[in-house]
Amino acid sequence: MQQVLRFQPLYQERVWGGRVLETALGRALPPAAAPGQAPAPIGESWEIVDRPEAQSVVRGGALDGLTLRQAIERHGADIMGPAWPKERAFPILVKWLDCRERLSLQVHPPAAVAPELKGEPKTENWYIADCAPGSHLIVGLKRGVTRDQFERALADLTLENCVHRFPVGRGDSILVHSGQIHAIDGGNLILEIQQNSDTTYRVYDWGRVGLDGKPRAMHIEQSLRSIKWDDFEPAPLRAASTAAVIADAREFRIRRVPLAEGESFRVAAGEQARILSVAEGAVRETPSDANAAAFKRGDNVVLPRAGAFVFEATEATVLLITENFS
Questions:
Q1: Could you tell me the pTM of the whole model?
Q2: Which pLDDT tens digit goes with each residue over 22-64?
Q3: Out of 80, 92, 211, 222, which could bridge 201 as a Cys pair, Cβ 3.0 to 4.6 Å?
Q4: How many CA atoms lie within 13 A of 210 on its CB side?
Q5: Is 124 annotated as ligand-binding?
Q6: CATH of region 245-323, choose from 3.10.490.10, 2.60.120.10, 3.30.230.10, 3.30.470.10
Q7: Which letter, b or e, does each residue of 197-207 get, where b requires 16 or more Cβ atoms within 10 Å of its Cβ?
Q8: Where are the domains of the chain?
Q9: Which of 121, 94, 102 is nearest to 17 (CA)?
Q10: Where in the sequence numbering do the catalytic residues fall?
């Protein structure tokens, strides 16, 4: 299958979201519901998703209009490989996050406890595509914090004293494993590449209310069961690092591929399915004929296993290549 699979984004309202996807990525976000009303805060754009409650729809090409689920059911051998069961979901979910305000302090259940809690594990990687001056992330506990100290701070509303908060800059990234307590501070535009899961346990929400004006649901018992109590002060991978691999987990690997204008990135046929994300710049398929596609910052596409592809940078570009998930 010599076709890059690109999809219609699915936009999600979030109390902590904003409208930065319009300006940073040139997206047309949903307008206000009625004249005179403020447009809804869009916190997430689900770029690639195969879940019962949310399906990406192919945009363009021979599979135009098919959901990702339908595409795999009909062309799974070409997209994922001959051994891929057609009923098995695409294992990665890709999102853009516009974090205008701080997200809740939360955790995703580790695989060992997720079935008992009726949830799904979720390991995720955050790539900081842009951020306001002074932006921070929260991942893990401060060194030496115990569960007892954490629970006392939860009761006293002083949890910020227990978690590891650190500054970030454009191009930084961090791999967040299931079981790591975390939150994203306001002012961050993040490309999140994660396991196909939508289980999040909130342990603390900074006194905030939801879009309906009511406090959002907390999941204290599940959170305390899920948190890794020996996870202290993990470090991000900084943009200045020369590391080609920015995330290497059991669930997926992400490579960072910088390209100068005119340089090419090649994918051989028959290896594995991959996801190509344009974090900076722009590329075009080559050879440049009438059927060639161009992709700009913010685009996320699936490269089927059966296809061979060449992408040429039309300006200085950073690609993220997600692989080892099939």
A1: 0.95
A2: 999 999 999 887 787 889 999 999 999 999 999 999 999 999 9
A3: 222
A4: 8
A5: yes
A6: 2.60.120.10
A7: bbbbbbbbbee
A8: 10-226, 245-323
A9: 102
A10: 202
